[in-house]
Amino acid sequence: MTTASTDTATGATGGTDILAVAREQVLERGEGLSEAQVLEVLRLPAERLTEALALAHEVRMRWCGPDVEVEGIVSLKTGGCPEDCHFCSQSGLFDSPVRAAWLDKDRLVEAAKQTAKTGATEFCIVAAVRGPDEKLMEQIRVGVAAIRAEVDINVACSLGMLTQDQVDRLAAMGVHRYNHNLETARSHFPEVVTTHTWEERWETLQMVRAAGMEVCCGGIVGMGETLEQRAEFAVQLAELEPDEVPMNFLIPNPGTPFAHLEVPQGPDALMTIAAFRLAMPKTVLRFAGGRELTLGDFGAEQGMLGGINAIIVGNYLTNLGRPAEQDLEMLDTLKMPIKALNDTL
Amino acid sequence: MFCSFCGGEAASGDHEHCRARLSAIDPPRYCPECGRRMVVQVDPMGWTARCSRHGETTNAAQR
C-alpha cells in the first residue's frame, strides 16, 4: 500500500521504493513500468541516478542480452519538407540554412557499403517528406534492390506517413524495418507538429506491423515536455510494442521554432534512458541524434551501461555524429559485442 | 570571409557558439568565401557542401 507522500531524499513514495519495485517487476518478471511508475523514476533525485542506470543495465542484459545492434542512416532526400515539425531543420516552412538535396543511387549504395564495414546490421534510408510520392517510391525500389544485391545488410526506411498500398510495396521490396517516430507524448504533440496528427502517425505504424515489417518508433527528449508527458510517452511507446525505440535528444537547430530551447542536460537524459528501459525491458533501445551535445563521451558510456543496447554510428541526416571508429572502440572497451547479421534474421 | 555556421561576417560578431557547433555536430552550411547557403549532403561517414559560385568542399578536404 502506498500513500501520496514522497521522501525527497530517496524518491521513495509512501515507503515503497520505485527501484525496488522495478527490480522485482521488470528485472524478475519482465513487465514494464506503468506511467505512474515511470514518473516516479523520472522524479528520483540525482543521487540515485547511478543506481537507476545500474538497474536498467541489468534489465537490458537479462531481457535483451549483451549484443549491441549497430545501424547507419542516410538522408536520401534532404530539406524542403512541407510539414512543420518544430525541431526539424528540414522543414521548408522555416528559415533554416538546410537546402534541398537528393542522393543518387551510387552514393546511396556506397553509404550502405561504408555502414556495413563498421559491422552494422541495419541501414536506414530516410526522406524528409510528409509521405512518399511515386518518384520517391521508385527511387526506393531501385535503391533497395541495389543495396540488397551488393551489400550484406538489412535495409530499413523512414519515409513519413504511408498508404496501405505503399506499406505493401515496401514490404514486397524486402524492407526489413520501418521507422516512423511518434516524437513525443500524445498530449504534447500539438505543441511540436501542427500539419498532421499523432494519430496519423500511429495509423502508419499499425499498417507497418500488420504487413510484417519490424516497427521502429521513438522520439526526441527535451522539446519542452513535462516529466509527466515524458512518462506518458514512454508508456505510449510500450503500448505500441515496437521492435526498436530510437532515443534522440533535442539539437536546437537554427531557424526552427525550437532553436531557443536549451540542450537537454546529461543527468536528465540519462535518467530518461533508465526510465524508458524500465518501461520497455525487451525492446531495442537505440542511441540516436543529439547524444554528442547532451551526453558527451563519458555520458555515452553511461548510457550504454544504463539500458541502451543499440547505436547509430557515424553521421545523422543533417548533423554529424562522432566518428564511427570512436563508438566501435567504446563498445570494445565496454566489452559489448556487436550483434551479427545472422542474429537479426 | 563568412562564418560557415551562421553565414554572418566572420570578422564581426561573436562566433564562439558557431565554432563549437562546427567542431562538434554541424557541417558547414554557408560558403566561407561569399556567405551563400550551400547544398550540403551528409552521409554516414562524411559530408559534401556545394556553393553555386565557389564549388564543392568535402570533409576530406577539411580534415
Largest sheet of chain B: 3 strands, antiparallel
Element order of chain B: H for helix, E for strand: HEEEH
Tell how many strands the DSSP assignment of chain A holds: 10
Strand percentage of chain B lies at: 15-25%
> What is the share of helical residues of chain B?
10-25%
What is the count of helical runs of chain A? 12
The class by helix and strand makeup of chain B works out as alpha+beta
Beta strands of chain B, count: 3
Keywords (chain B): Biotin biosynthesis, Iron, Metal-binding
Protein name (chain B): Biotin synthase auxiliary protein
Domain Biotin synthase auxiliary protein C-terminal (chain B): 38-60
Family (chain B): Belongs to the BsaP family.
Explain what this protein looks like in three dimensions:
The complex is a heterodimer of chains A (345) and B (63). Chain A is an alpha/beta fold and 345 residues long. Chain A has helices at residues 18-28, 35-42, 49-63, 105-117, 134-150, 164-173, 198-210, 227-240, 266-279, 291-294, 296-304, 324-333; strands at residues 69-78, 101-102, 122-127, 154-158, 177-179, 214-216, 219-221, 244-249, 284-287, 310-312. In chain A, strands 1, 2, 3, 4, 5, 6, 7, 8, 9 and 10 form a 10-stranded mixed beta sheet that branches. The mean pLDDT of chain A is 95. Chain B is flat, with a radius of gyration of 11 Å. Chain B has 63 residues and is of the alpha+beta class. Helix content of chain B is 21%, strand content 24%. In chain B, strands 1-2-3 form a 3-stranded antiparallel beta sheet.
